[in-house]
Amino acid sequence: MPRKIFPNIYDAQYISESSGNREMPAKAYFLKDKLVIQLEDEHGAEVQVFWFWENIIIEKNLIGNVELHYQGYPKQILKCTSLGFSEEFAKTWQQVNEKNWFKRTFPNTMAQFYIICLALITFLVCAYFWLIPIIANQIAKRIPRAWEVSIGEQSYESISRNFVVDSSKTRLVNEFFAALHIDSKYPVKITVVKDSIMNAFAVPGGHIVVYTALINSMQHPEELAALLSHEYSHVALQHTTRTLFRSMGTYLLVSSLFGNWDGVAAVFVENANNLKTLEYSRKLEKEADMNGLKLLTERNIDPVGFSELFKTLKAGSKSQGELVEWMSSHPDTNRRIEYIQKEISDHSPKVLPQPALEVIWEQLKQEQ
């Protein structure tokens, strides 16, 4: 049978507003969850008063001189000049606060649960909108260009199995891009696919896919220049790679952080079909628009091609009765037209004839 341990009992003075604020002799001792005060009432009957730790306020805490107050009604005070009391109180108070700091801060159990849930949700939201994009950007910077080109080739091979390629238009559009004289760090390869859907998308490492329905709907070569400069910007600025890292979850992030590039490549290829409708953030879309606009103005190509391209896409969506695929993954078209037009108005870029692009454009239109 375990030995029962009795608490140390100390002489003290107890004061209560309900007893006229007079000092009454008392005995005090410590239990795990409370301070117990024993005294006699005015009729000589023994009375016990329980002070729970969370309601005790330290008014004075000197060696051999402690004064404690208790929250609530009536007002209560305990004074003790015992050296042993002051030492045990200090030790017990420290232990209670170390064990029950969370309970003292959040006394309601359900409140604790809700606060933990709220904190977890807040962390996850912050991670998705702030932390993961930052990590994805840092990883994209670390990716070897040769590896990015390699997974781009594998991804393209995976999604192109069912393509019906328009070889003639593919040749001409590649000539058109070459005539833009863009100094690219990636081997840009453009494929024109026969399809009634108006769409275009970029693959990591340099592949760009454009559907014939979109080219056939264009009225001006500047529209094609705008489209290619926009999709190329997604490649050059690693938007596709960064967005894939973000959209495919923590596996890619963890694998890439530990240098497991083979595992990352496998996931990229498995999800290659997502590239057709990959949605970029508004920030990345604007960055691609602005970079594409810069590429055109540096070459004295009329940047109104961007506005015309967006109008073509809007008209196509109305005639088809639904959003064209490119617009479904490139939202906020009206807003983008506005900031493109504002950029043009603010800088009034110089525009020159583009005979080389015109010749290729005419050949493209003859292929329809």
Describe what this molecule looks like in 3D.
The chain has helices spanning 83-99, 101-105, 109-142, 145-159, 167-179, 212-217, 221-236, 239-247, 250-257, 261-270, 282-298, 304-320, 325-328, 333-347, 355-366, and strands spanning 10-16, 23-30, 34-40, 46-52, 56-62, 65-70, 76-80, 189-193, 200-202, 207-211. With 368 residues, it is of the alpha+beta class. The strands form two sheets. It has a seven-stranded antiparallel beta sheet, covered by helices on one side. A three-stranded mixed beta sheet has the order 8-10-9, with helices on both faces. A hairpin with a 4-residue loop joins strand 9 (200-202) and strand 10 (207-211). The longest helix has 34 residues, at 109-142. InterPro entries: Mito/Outer_Membr_Metalloprot, Peptidase_M48.
Topology:
Layout: E1 10-16, E2 23-30, E3 34-40, E4 46-52, E5 56-62, E6 65-70, E7 76-80, H1 83-99, H2 101-105, H3 109-142, H4 145-159, H5 167-179, E8 189-193, E9 200-202, E10 207-211, H6 212-217, H7 221-236, H8 239-247, H9 250-257, H10 261-270, H11 282-298, H12 304-320, H13 325-328, H14 333-347, H15 355-366
Parallel strand pairs: 8-10
Antiparallel strand pairs: 1-2, 1-7, 2-3, 3-4, 5-6, 6-7, 9-10
Helix pairs in contact: 3-8, 3-9, 4-10, 5-15, 7-11, 7-12, 9-10, 12-14
Please summarize what this structure is:
Belongs to the peptidase M48 family. By secondary structure, the chain is α+β, with helices and mostly antiparallel strands.
